[in-house]
Amino acid sequence: MIGYNPKDWWKLIFAFHRSDTFRFLLPGIIGVSVYTGVVAYIENDIFHASFKNTTVVHSLVGFVLSMLLVFRTNTAYDRWWEGRRLWGSFVNNSRNLALKLNAFLPKDNPARETLRILITNYIFAAKEHLRSGVHPKKLIPLGQYDADFYSNKKHIPNNIMGAIYQEINNLHTQRIISGDRLILLNYELQSFSDNLGGCERIKRTPIPYAYSLFLKKVIFLYVFTMPIGFVIEFKYWAIPIVAIIFYVFASIEVIAEEIEDPFGTDANDLPTDSIYETIKENLEEIL
Amino acid sequence: MIGYNPKDWWKLIFAFHRSDTFRFLLPGIIGVSVYTGVVAYIENDIFHASFKNTTVVHSLVGFVLSMLLVFRTNTAYDRWWEGRRLWGSFVNNSRNLALKLNAFLPKDNPARETLRILITNYIFAAKEHLRSGVHPKKLIPLGQYDADFYSNKKHIPNNIMGAIYQEINNLHTQRIISGDRLILLNYELQSFSDNLGGCERIKRTPIPYAYSLFLKKVIFLYVFTMPIGFVIEFKYWAIPIVAIIFYVFASIEVIAEEIEDPFGTDANDLPTDSIYETIKENLEEIL
Amino acid sequence: MIGYNPKDWWKLIFAFHRSDTFRFLLPGIIGVSVYTGVVAYIENDIFHASFKNTTVVHSLVGFVLSMLLVFRTNTAYDRWWEGRRLWGSFVNNSRNLALKLNAFLPKDNPARETLRILITNYIFAAKEHLRSGVHPKKLIPLGQYDADFYSNKKHIPNNIMGAIYQEINNLHTQRIISGDRLILLNYELQSFSDNLGGCERIKRTPIPYAYSLFLKKVIFLYVFTMPIGFVIEFKYWAIPIVAIIFYVFASIEVIAEEIEDPFGTDANDLPTDSIYETIKENLEEIL
Amino acid sequence: MIGYNPKDWWKLIFAFHRSDTFRFLLPGIIGVSVYTGVVAYIENDIFHASFKNTTVVHSLVGFVLSMLLVFRTNTAYDRWWEGRRLWGSFVNNSRNLALKLNAFLPKDNPARETLRILITNYIFAAKEHLRSGVHPKKLIPLGQYDADFYSNKKHIPNNIMGAIYQEINNLHTQRIISGDRLILLNYELQSFSDNLGGCERIKRTPIPYAYSLFLKKVIFLYVFTMPIGFVIEFKYWAIPIVAIIFYVFASIEVIAEEIEDPFGTDANDLPTDSIYETIKENLEEIL
Amino acid sequence: MIGYNPKDWWKLIFAFHRSDTFRFLLPGIIGVSVYTGVVAYIENDIFHASFKNTTVVHSLVGFVLSMLLVFRTNTAYDRWWEGRRLWGSFVNNSRNLALKLNAFLPKDNPARETLRILITNYIFAAKEHLRSGVHPKKLIPLGQYDADFYSNKKHIPNNIMGAIYQEINNLHTQRIISGDRLILLNYELQSFSDNLGGCERIKRTPIPYAYSLFLKKVIFLYVFTMPIGFVIEFKYWAIPIVAIIFYVFASIEVIAEEIEDPFGTDANDLPTDSIYETIKENLEEIL
Questions:
Q1: Where are the bilayer-spanning segments (chains A, B, C, D, E) (predicted)?
Q2: CB A212 within 8 A of CB B6
Q3: Does residue D262 contact residue D269 with C-beta atoms inside 8 Å?
Q4: Per residue in B89-130, pLDDT tens?
Q5: C118 min Cα distance to partner chain B (Å)
Q6: Which of D96, D182, D188, D223 is best to mutate for the C interface (most C CBs within 10 A)?
Q7: What angle do the packed helices B179-204 and A179-204 form, to 10 degrees?
Q8: Alpha-carbon distance B188 to B225, whole Å?
Q9: Other beta carbons less than 10 A from residue C151's beta carbon
Q10: For residues E216, E219, E225 and E229, what is the CA-based torsion angle, rounded to 10 degrees?
Q11: For residue D184, which residues of chain C lie inside 8 Å, CB to CB?
C-alpha cells in the first residue's frame, strides 16, 4: 500500500505513479486515438457521411454501462475492505489472545515464549500463504518447531495452528489453564482459522467469469462504435473525446481488477507486511 | 467455475466461451435484427413516416430499466457470494473441528478416523444434495456407516450429521472429551447445519416471481417498441443499434439467472467440487 | 410462492398470471389512456397549442423518481429476503436442536416425542400467527398439551416455547441433560423466539408512511402531467407511450407493496407452508 | 406511527395528512412560484432575453443531486430501520428472558414478580429516556424500587438494569440459579444495554454536518437558478414546473430529516409506545 | 462534532461555517472562473469558434463521475458510521462491564475503584491514541498504575487492557469471581480490544490510492475541459455555470476526505471527547 495524503490535490492530479491506470492504459489510449482518427478521415473526408442525433445511442448504453461499472467497483472494493477487516481481526485476535495468556500463565512459564513465536509464525505464514507460498526457512525456529517441522507440509498455517491448539491443550491437561479459561481462549483460536479461510476465499474467487467477460465486451463495443457517430458531429475533436471516455471507463475496470485480489505486493494491495510487524511488536510487548 | 486471468483483455473480448451470453442470445439477436429490418422497411420505404425526437421515451424507460437490471444483478451476485461464503465456512469449520479434535483425542483413538470420514462424507453429501441428490454408493464407507446405512434416508447430510453428534456425544459419555471441550466443539457442528440450510435457502428461493415476470416483460416491450422510433432517425443503421441494445440488456438478465443458483456445474457456478477436495486434503493432513 | 423456471422467457413474457401487475393495473392503464386521449384532443385539435422541448422536465423528475422506486424496491426486497432468512433459520434451528436432542436423550425417553411435537407445533403456530391467527384445534395435541392448553392464550407461539423451555429444564433437573449440554441447547431455543420476533417486526412495520404517501403522489403527478407536454410532440401516439410509462412505474410500486409483507398466501409470498412440512419431515427423520 | 393501508392509492394520493411534506413545504412552494413568476416577467417581458439549450446544466446537476438525495434517503432509512430492529430486539429479549426465568424459578418465588416489574420499567424508562427524559413517578413502584429509588439518578435505565443484575446475582448466590443457568441469562441482559446504547447512538448522531449543509445549499442553488433558464423556454409555464421540482427535491430531504431520529412521537416515528405495551403483555402472560 | 438543528434550512443555507466546503474551495472556484473567462474570451471573441451539441460529452462523463462520487460518499460515510458504532460499543461495553462488576464484587472491594479507573483510562487512552498519541500524565494515576507505569510503553491502551485482564484474573484466583462469572466478563473485555482495533483500521486505511488518484484526475479533466464546449453555447454565462459545477463535484470529494478519518477534532469528526465524558459519568454512577 502507498502512504499518501488524500488532501493534496495537485500532487495527485499530476502524479503519474507506476500504479496509475493512465500509464497502464497508455497504449490503449494511443490505439483508440489512432483508430478514431482513421474513422474520422474515412467518414468525413472520403464519404462525407452525415446523420443526425447520433450520440443518443451511446447515452443509452453509457448509462447501463456506468451502472455496471459501479456495481463492479462496489464488489471489488467490498472484497478489498473485507480483506482489510480480516487482517484487522488478526491484529485484534493476537492482542486479545496475548492479553489473556499473559493473565493466565505464570510469569516464568516457557509456554509464553512458545505461544508468542507460534502466533507470530502463524501470521507470517498466513501472509506468505496468500502470496506465492511459505518458505519454511523464513519462519522463526523454536525447539521442535523448526524448519524441518514445517517442511513437507501442504498447508503450513494449518500446521502452526495445530501446534498452538496442541500447546494450549497441554496446558489444560497440566491444569495450568482451567476449563473455564480454555473456553475463553476458544474464540480467538477459532477466529484465526476463519480469517485465513476468508482471505483464501477472496483470493481464489474473482468476480464470476460471465461478468468479467461481459463488461470487457461492452466496454470494447462501446468505445469502438463511438467514433462512427461522434466524428460526424465533432470532426477531429472526436479523437480526444473518445480517448478520454476510453480512459475513464477502462480505468474503472482496471482498478477494480487490481483491488479485487488485495493480498499481493502491488501499490493498492493491503499492507500485510506492516500489519505483520505491528502484530509482532504487540505480542512482544504484551507476552 | 472457470479459471481465468481477469487482466487478459483481448482474450476475454474475443472469447466465445460456451457460457458466453452472446452465444446463448444469438437466436434472439438475429430475431431482433430481422424484426428491426422489417419495421425499417415498412416505416421508411412504404409509409415514409416521420416524427421528431422519438428517442426520448426510450431514454426515460431505459433509465428505470437499467436501474432495475442493476438491482437484479446485485441480488443475484449477493446470492452467489453468500453461497461462496457458506462454502468458505465449510472449509473453516472443517479445519477448526479437525484442529480441535486433533488436540483433544489421543493419537491412537479410532474416533479420529471415524470422524474424519464422517466429516468428509458430510461435505460430499452436502455438495451432491444441492445438485441432483446423493448416491449412497459414492460416500466413503466405514464400519457401520456403509451404503446400507445411508440408503432409505430422505436427507442424507442430516443423517451424517446425526452420526457425528452421536460419535462426539459418545466420546463425552466415555469421558474422553470433557464438558468444557464439548462446548468448544459445538460452534462448528452447529455451523455445518446452518451452512447447508443457507445453501438450500439460496437454491430453493429464486427472486420473487413478480420481478422475474416484470423484468422480462419490460425488456421485451422496450426492445420491440424501439425500432418503431429508431428506424426513422437511423434508417437501416437501426438494425445493429437495436441488436446491440438487446444484447446488452438481455445479457444482464441472463447472467443474473445463471449466477443466482450457484451450486450446479455450470461455467459460472461455485467450484464446490474443488472445495470438497481441499477440505478432504486438509482433514487428512490434520487429523 | 409460485414455482417457475426463470429461464423460460417466452412463457414469462406472455403469461398473464393472476399475480401479474398488468392485470392489477389494467383499470389504471385504461384510465390513463382515455385521459391522455382527451388531453391530446383538447390541446391538438381544439387549441392547436405548441411549445418546444417539453420532455426535459419529465426526464429530470423521471430520474429522481426512478431512483426512489429503486430505493423502494431494495427495501421491499430486503424485507422479503430477511423473512426468508428467518424461516431458513427456523429450518436450521429445528435440525440442530433435533440432532442435539437425539444425541443427548436415551432412545426410549418419552421427552423425545414430546419435544418433537412441541417444536412442530411451534413452527405451525408461528406460521399461522403471522397470518390471521392460530386455531388451537389445528395443533397436534399431546398429553397435557392439547387444544384446551392452547386456548385462552394471547400469544400461542410464546406459550409453546414456554412449554419447550419447561420440558428441557425438567430434563436438566432430572440430571438427564447436564449443565454443559444445557448451554449447548440454549442458542437454538433463543433463536426460535428471535426469528419469530423478526417476522413480527417485518409484518407490523411497513415502509414509513411519509415515503408511501410521497411516492404515490409523485407517480400520480408525473403520469398526469405527462400528456400535457407529450401530446404536442407525439400526437395520439402519446396514448400508448403514457400508458406504458404508467405501467412500468406503477408496477414497481405495486410489486414492492406485495413483496414487503411476505408471510401471507399471495403468489409472491414465502412458501411458509412447505417450509413447515420440511421441518416436520426433518424432525420425524432425526428425532 | 400511523397505521395505513399501503394499497389504498387514491386515499394516499389525495390525503393531506398533517405529516405530509406538501403541507410543510407549502410556504416554500408559494415562495418559489412567486419568485419564478417575477423572473419570468423580468426576462421575457422586460429584457426579452433568449439563449438556447439552457436546461442541460440543470440536467447535469440534477443528476448528481438526485443521487445525493438517494444517498440521504438510504442513510436516514437505515437509521429508522436499525431503530426498529433494536426495539424488535427489546421484544425478543424480554420474551426469552421471561421464558428462561419462568423455567428456572420456582412458581412461588417472589423474584418472579420483582424481575417482571423491573424489566417492564426498564423498557418504559428506555422509551422515555429517548424522548424528553424519564419521570420516576411514571414507573411501576415495587418494594425498595419506588420513585425515591429512581429519583436523583442521571441515567435511570442503567440503574434499573443494575437492579436486575443485582437481583439475578442474588438468586445465583442463593443457589436458586446455577452457574450454567447464569451463563444462559447473560446474553439477554447484555443485549438490553446494547440496544439502548444503539438507540442513543442513532438519536445523538445525525448525518455529518457537512452533508446537511451541502445538500441544503445545492437544493437552494438548484431551485433558485432554475427559473433563469426555464422561463425562456417555458414562459409562465415555468411557475408550476419549478414549483413541482422544488416540491419533489425538498420533500426527499424533509422526509429524511423526519425519519432520521425515529424515537419521538411524530407521525413517522417508531411505535415505541405500543411496543412497550406488547412487551408488558408478553411478560404478564409468561412470567 | 458540531451540534446543529437539521431542520433550520435558512441558517444552514446561508451559514459559512469554517468547515463549509465553499470556504475551502473558494480559491479553486475563483481560479476556475478566471480560467473559464479566459477560454470564453479566446473562443468567442478571438476565434469566433462554433460547434454543435457540445454538452453531450460532459453529460456522458458527468454520469459516470456522479456515480463514482456517490460510491466515494458511501464508502466514506460507512467508515464514519462504523467509527461511531465502535465508539457506541465502547459506551455499551463500559456499562455492561460496570453493571456486572457491580453485581459480582462486594461493596467494599478495592478492585471496584481500580477497575473503574482503569476502564476510564482505557477509553481516554483509546481516544488520544487515535489522534496524536497518549500523554501518560493525562491519565488518572492510581496506586501502581501511575504515569511511570504508562511511560516507555509503545501501545498504551494495550497495556491498560493488560492491567484490567490481570486485575480480573487475580479476582478469579482469589475466588472472588467464579469461573462462570469470568466467562460472563469475557465478551466485554474482548470487545474493547476489537473496537480499538477497528478504529485503528479505519484510521490507517484510507480508500485505495488508485481511486483517490483517479477521482481527482477525472474531476480535474471534467472541469477543465468543460469551458471549451460551454462558452460557445452559454457565452460569459459559462463562468457561473462552470464555477457551480466545480463547487458541487469538488465538494463531494472534499467532504468524503474529511469524513473518512473521523477520530480527529475537525467539525465533522465524531464527538469522542464527549463520549469519553459520558462513559466516565456512567462508570461513576454504576460502580
A1: 21-42, 54-71, 209-230, 236-256
A2: yes
A3: yes
A4: 999 999 999 999 998 999 889 999 999 999 999 999 999 999
A5: 20
A6: D96
A7: 30
A8: 55
A9: 12
A10: 180
A11: 182-183, 186
